[in-house]
Each structure stands twice: as structure tokens, then as C-alpha cells.
Amino acid sequence: MAIKVNRRMMSAIFLVGISCGLIVTAQASAVQELLAEYGKEGAGKYNAVNGENLWKRVQVDAKTGQKRSCVTCHTNDLRKPGKHARTGKLIKPMAPSVNADRLTDKKKIEKWFHRNCKWTLGRICTPQEKADILAYLANQ
Amino acid sequence: MKKLNVYMLAMSMITTGLSGMSLADDDDEDRYMRPWGVNARPGVAPVDNPLYRNECGSCHMAYLPGLLPAHSWERLMAGLENHFGENAELPRGEWNAILAYLLNNAAGRGNYQVSNKLVRGLRGTPLRISELPYFVHEHREIPARLVRGNPKVGSFSNCDACHTGANRGSYNEHQVNIPGYGRYDD
Fold it and tell me: What number is the ipTM of this complex?
């Protein structure tokens, strides 16, 4: 009996270990692959500090006169949930350290860069800007 | 003997055929003969497409396709770059799949009571569910302080703030629970 429990525990620990490993790998590989792609598109070495500055930079929207930044919806604390500025819908935390799903899906990352750069900055982001922001977020 | 066998076989085939027919009649009665409106199911068909739920439900409630007619969805999907002031553009593959889902399940495509009422006599190509005449009529007596002036509701766009069955396609007034106010009876 004792052996059986131990075996079960071992296999549970093994499975948990493997899935944690997979999540970390998925995040690392999505981020690494995108950083490499941005490099090919002309981005230089990524810089997390520049990413943080851009993330927090306040822009005035030309059409509405609203002040906008990434912080508007994602809040100042990336480990806490955010709130959609218009609909009020909850946005799960951006920090991969508390939300393991973040930065694991290249397509999703690109989709939101496209939408949110346009909303916040009024234009799409350059490969350099995306690389910097990604480097900043990946460390959170 | 051979003749008898053939006769019995024929009889059994006829009987089976008849019983099949009568069973079918019992199941459906004259359902297919009833008018569209009488045959309608209650409410609105719930969302059954994970791609749609994920893509369109990340910023707001995943509005049930049966809440707008097909031509409205078509117009809305053509303007995702400025989606009520937001950018909601989708990659081409997802865009195609979601448009197909919306068009196939728009109000009037299935037979649901609330969907049918929303599009009855509708003119133009409205983009906002909350501007459809039936919607306006059903909500006409609700004071603004319970919706716009209510921080837990904010706007008529948040169906599921008050309609507890909104995502299941049930908009029955008995399932209304206005945050900070409670049930709402006419």
C-alpha cells in the first residue's frame, strides 16, 4: 500500500513537473521565436527598459482627445487583473509569473500587438517596439 | 410453398413500412405543418463555437449570433478596424470562420422566439443590438439610474450584468437580476 501511494505521488509530481516545464518552455519558445522574427524584420537588440517606458507612455488619442497608455486597461501592476476601458470586462493579469498562459501563443501576441498598438498609439508598432515590450513583459 | 413465402415477405415489408410511418407521425405530429412562429423555440440559440467565444468574448460578452440579422453581422465584420471606437481586427482565417458562423446563426436563420421578434419588421442595417426596436421597447421602462447610472451595469450592452441566463440564450424577465436592485417586474 505504502509503495502504491508513493508511486502515485511520484507520478503526480512527475506529471506536475512535466506540465510546468512545458508551460515555461512554451512561453520561452513563443517569446524567443517572436524576438528572432522581429530581429529579421529589422529590430536591433531588445531592451526591456525601453519596453517599460513605451508601455507606460501616455498618448493623446487624436480623435477623442482621451489619454491612453497600456496602463489604461492593464493597470500599473501587471500581476493584477486589468479592466477593459470601454466595456469594463476583466482582463487577466499580463505577468507570466502569475498567469502561465501569457506569452505562450505567437498568434495571440501578434493579434493583440496589432489591435492595442493601434488603439493606444494610433498606429501599428515597429518590430523594435514589439521586441522591447515583449522583453519587458516576459520578465514580469 | 414458395408462393406463400413471397406473400409473407411482402406482408411483413408492408407492415414494417406502415409501422415506421405511423411512428414518424407520432413523433412529429403535424409539427412541420405549423406556422414558423408557433414552432419557434424560446429565447436565442446559445453560442456553440469556441473560436467565436474566445475571439469575440475577450473584450465583451460573446453576443449570441441570433441577436442580430445576417446583414448586420456582415456590416459589423466589415468594420472591425473601427469597432465602436476600438480596433478589433482579426487574422484572415479567424475572420472568415467567425463571419461564416455569424451568418449561419444570425437571427432569422434558426427559429427562436426572441431572435424572430428582434428582426421582425426591421429596417436598415443596425449595428447595435440595443437599438433594435424590440430591444428598445422591452427596456423602455427601465430607469437610466439602474443601467447607465449603475456602476455594476454601465450600459445596455452588458446583457449578462442583469440577464442571468443571457449566455444560455434565456432573456426571460423572470431571470432578470439588476445588481444593487434585484428582480425587475413590469
Answer: 0.74
